Amino acid sequence: MKRGRRLISEAGLAYFVTTTLSGFVRLFDDERYAHIILDNLDFYRRKFEFKLAGYVIMPSHLHMIVQPSPTGSLSEIMRDFKKHSAREIIQKLEGDRRVDILGFLRARACTYHPKESRRYQVWEDRFDDVALYSDDVFSTKLCYIHDNPVKAGLSESAADYPYSSARNYLYGDHSVLYVDCEMGLRIMEMARQVRSGT
User: Fold this and answer.
1) Helix/strand/coil (H, E, C) string of 91-120?
2) 87 falls in which pLDDT band (50, 70, 90)?
3) CA gap 80, 89 in Å, rounded
4) 184 phi and psi, to 5 degrees?
5) According to the model, what pLDDT value does residue 73 have?
6) Is 79 helix (H, G, I), strand (E, B) or coil?
């Protein structure tokens, strides 16, 4: 086996996934909307039996590390997650009478899907995914996830940010959302050993 490519020989590739709200509208700095994402992540993690090795919910987008299982492909996971979270976000926006954001999302739907009956465009149509083909790449992406709120000026430390897996790793705190830290810690340790030559 080649050094630095251990992840491929495991149960399957993990992916660094990014999905963004339409037009980068900011919603998730409001905890009520962030919790819609947390609840949906937890529901679909259970439904599709995927491993969630890391995540961060930023004001306008979500990064996560997912290792799909035979129960559902990454495309199936993201299709259902985006569809149902969008429905809940719209219901919440309507309940909160956020006509400004609803108007923006309606205009986005008309612009990007003029021939469809879609009322709102909550998420960008695509999501980006990067196969984490080595332990080093996995480790780099997990660190990026945890550092993201600090670099964006949203918190002073990774552990202070409430919507990321940093607290899961640092304190074993799974009270917000369960994260498969064992997988992440094991892979980061392998990456460290490869880098140090031990």
Assistant:
1) HHHHHCCCHHHHHHHHHHHHHHCCCCCCCC
2) very high
3) 14
4) -65, -45
5) 93
6) helix
Q: What SS3 class is residue 29?
A: coil
Residue 97 CA to residue 77 CA, distance in Å, equals: 30
Residue with tokens 């460290």: 192
CATH superfamily, domain at 6-196: Transposase IS200-like (3.30.70.1290)
How many CA atoms lie less than 13 Å away from 36 in the CB half-sphere? 20
Element (H, E) at 55: strand 51-57
Q: Specify the higher pLDDT residue, 99 or 9.
A: 99
Of residues 197 and 167, more confidence is placed in: 167
Interatomic CA distance for residues 181 and 43, integer angstroms: 18
